[in-house]
Write a structure and sequence with these properties.
7 helices, two-stranded antiparallel ribbon, mainly alpha, 186 residues
């Protein structure tokens, strides 16, 4: 029906299963996995540590061109926030983090973060676009990303790591607050 072999479909499903996005139910087949709040908490804790490490490594390893690219993506993120378009905000923040991960200079870390972002994107989208999102959260997030960039420009790796860890922790807390009373089928 799709013009591809069953082998390609099976391999794609195995990949999605390994990323935690699909569950294979015996005698039933593949289904999209339901993410739990407990899993979301775990993912945000792990994300805070790994992204903090990426900020540290970026500050230690990035060249001036990498820093300029990061600043450019932060400017695009600020413009997306000003526009208020959730999809644009998520896309621009993803580009910011892609530059950060690349400039960190660790393929292993970049790969781990890529897998983590695939698993957490639904929670991030809900956190950014929820109608009851804190009015201050967007300003706080941008301020934290600007402070991270400032620490990177000053080559203060420990500070860059601490700021970004704190930012991700606050993002996770906001998502948990928003989803406390929401049905768990996201």
């Amino acid at each position: 029906m799709l013009g591809v072999s069953r082998t390609v479909i099976r391999e794609a499903l195995r990949q999605l299963e390994s990323e935690g996005l699909v569950a294979i139910i015996p005698n039933k087949g593949p289904i999209v996995r339901e993410l739990t709040l407990s899993e979301a908490r775990d993912l945000y804790v792990i994300r805070a540590v790994l992204e903090g490490l990426a900020a540290r490594l970026f500050a230690e390893n990035a060249n001036d061109g990498d820093i300029d690219r990061l600043e450019k993506e932060l400017d695009a993120t600020a413009a997306a926030y000003a526009e208020g378009n959730t999809e644009l905000i998520l896309a621009s923040k993803n580009r910011f983090f892609e530059v950060l991960f690349e400039g960190a200079g660790s393929e292993t870390l970049s790969s781990m973060l890529g897998t983590l972002h695939v698993r957490i994107w639904r929670w991030r989208a809900v956190g950014l676009g929820h109608p009851q999102r804190s009015g201050q959260r967007s300003k706080e997030s941008l301020a934290d990303l600007r402070a991270t960039l400032s620490a990177i420009k000053n080559r203060d790796a420990a500070l860059a790591e601490a700021i970004l860890r704190d930012e991700v922790t606050k993002a996770g807390a906001e998502v948990m607050r928003l989803l406390e009373n929401v049905p768990r089928n996201l």
